Amino acid sequence: QPSDALCAAASRIGDRWALLLVAALLDGPGRFGDLQRALTGVAPNVLAKRLRTLEADGLVVATPYSTRPLRVDYALTDAGASLAEALRVL
Description:
The protein is of the alpha+beta class. The protein has helices spanning 2-13, 16-25, 32-38, 44-56, 78-81, 84-89; strands spanning 30-31, 60-67, 70-76. The protein is built from six helices and three strands, in the order ααβααββαα. It is globular.
């Protein structure tokens, strides 16, 4: 049922930037700069905080591609990708 999926997504994601981040990552992994360009208007500190929250919630995984300086690709986990149906409803 779409309303069940939507309720689950809303409770896991919490706000519009997180929702837009999940939507942006549905196309595949992205780097911080890519995500910032995709989400016009998001402040870097807000983007970083939302990525950390989504990672802590098990919806996003950060995979390092450089150690000096540390740089990562962000990708949806299976749990994060499962929110795709709720996003389609929106």
